[in-house]
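note to self: the first set is below, dont mix up w the second
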Amino acid sequence: MRSLKTLLATVCMTALLGGAAHAELMRIGHDAPPEAKGNVTHAYSAVLGASVEAATNGDIDVEIYPNNQLGSSEERLQQVRDGIIQGTIASLGSLTPVYPDLDILNLPFAFDNMASVYKVYGGEFGTKLAKAIEAKLGDVVVLGIADPGGFFALTNSKKPVKTLEDFKGMRIRTMTVPAHQRLIQALGAEAYPLAWSEVYTGLQTGVIDGQMNPVPTVYRTKLYEVQTATSLIKHLYNPLFFLVNKQFFEGLSAEQQDILRASSMEAVVATRGLGRISEAEDTIDLKEKMVVNTPSKDELARMREVAVSEMDKYFDETLTDSGKTLLTEFKAAINKANASVYLK
């Protein structure tokens, strides 16, 4: 994989040779290690790239830059918007600063299960959400809403979180996302925003007591070395977004655009399966290294009650009118999905 310096040189050379016949070069950056097995982010880009190159017979050449080689998620998003690279897999945390109404996706304790997640983001609401992002940013096309590896779990070095009261006295790392901070505070803990690159050291030195992420992230970053408990609270689900530069996309033929959309759907399906396998296997492996627990239904209901009450106030204070409309549609889609039963 090439560095950002090499990439910029390639961009300049491509511009100089613009008149020559060549394959469309599609550069995709993300923040995960280059391992397709057990890593949903890289798996998404790998499946997408292989599918696109095969379906276009090499007319679109996909290059993947993992491990933040091209910069942080926020920097890569700007690079896509500027046309420096063609695609990125962006976190919700990198999108909310440019589109604050996306905070609605931090609705806590919303989904009963992953099947409901798939129905919502893979259905009518997912399409509305993609179009809303495109309209707000103006220079990107949303081609995929992908699984990050499952619901958030909470890890800490003090004790398993079994009750609402167990949050008290804990300092929990959050992303620099105001909704996450408000949620953790509502549950009774202290929210401590911290860059992901500083989390392991922060946990190791006791600057923070815990953090929240999907189970595969906990296991593959070896947080069990500096944490003693993982609580499967499933309080948040933050999808990933595959975004491409609008000018690049519109410069493709109609057939190539359809191929990109179909390949992205293949990648979404692949990462859903991989996400569930990784989550299950990693949970089993974590049980050999730390305490893993799930709070009772009654305690989860108590957590949900205080969290939803506080977050409803937060949304009322911060969302625009269009954001509030989108939140209403989001809740309706969730309620419908939660009420459905497979094959019944």
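second set (the one i keep forgetting abt)
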Amino acid sequence: MKKIWKGIFGVLICGFLTGCGVTTTPEIIMPDQPMVSSVDTEQKVTTDSKMEDSTQVTSAEKKDTQQEYTIYLITMDLSDSYWKSIDNGCIDAATQLGNIRYKWTGPDTHDDAQQSACIDAAVADGANAILIAANSAEGINDSLRKAADAGCKIVYVDSAASYDCVTALSTDNVAAGRTAGETMKSVLQEQGITSGTIGIMGVTVDTASCVAREQGFREAFEGTAFTLSDTVYMQDNTENVKNAVAEGISQEYIGFFGTNEGTTAAVGTALQEEGTQSIVIGFDTSDTVLEMVSDGIIYATMKQNPEVMGRDGLKIAVQALEGTYTDTNTKTDTGVTVITQDAM
């Protein structure tokens, strides 16, 4: 009879996981005193068919009174190294605490239905808390509501949905976008450029973090003689950005702004393929983006702090589960640093 029930449960889990991406080689208010595990920890890696390389379990010979928590990180996709940095922060916190069963998963592409499936699967697997970079403000709220009703604590990292949470750790994206805009204005002034068109590259129309960065960037140019183009959305297809850059070059655009790692790298690659140069301001610090900054293809990129989001977010989730963190809907700006060739 036990075997029958195990089989039925396995079928249910597989059903929940349909549409939730398979990992191959994946990507907030801190308490006054950091939480430290009272026991030594021994890391073990589990192999789950849906989260093979992104599943990290930390366990130990814990006191009988110390409860083990299952905590999931769910990102927008599994391809950007930025998400891996958040994962690294989560692994660091889980290792420190020692009583965490931790898993990272996400959809194959930016899709509300697929990310909702990941949330549902996490709840079915017994998740006590979910750290999530929301794909959109509204599209995953039904699944988040079901998770909360099941007793799951919700912590947003990088990008928040509109549903209630314990806390949201992210860059103040409007302020960061404004910093990117001021950086662009500064280099244009240095080069004696006082007017012209700047191309704007977004991710999707619903990616709240990138939309906010674009808002801040545009605000920085209010009242100037510069023109900002309509936003071109990559939509998980770098060709959309490459085509927009080629079109912009033909129309003598003076610069381009990429709102995340993927768009920034795509702009740089397009310029290389076109055999030309432009002023590019971007976001995030993958190896590819940093190499382009070092080579002078990209003028500057905004460095976020994703590991802080993951590490502090997981610790706060545990505090909420233990009842020592009782605030709700708090926000923390984890900040940005401007990285240029001279600063490397």
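remember for set 2: The chain is about 40% helix and 20% strand.
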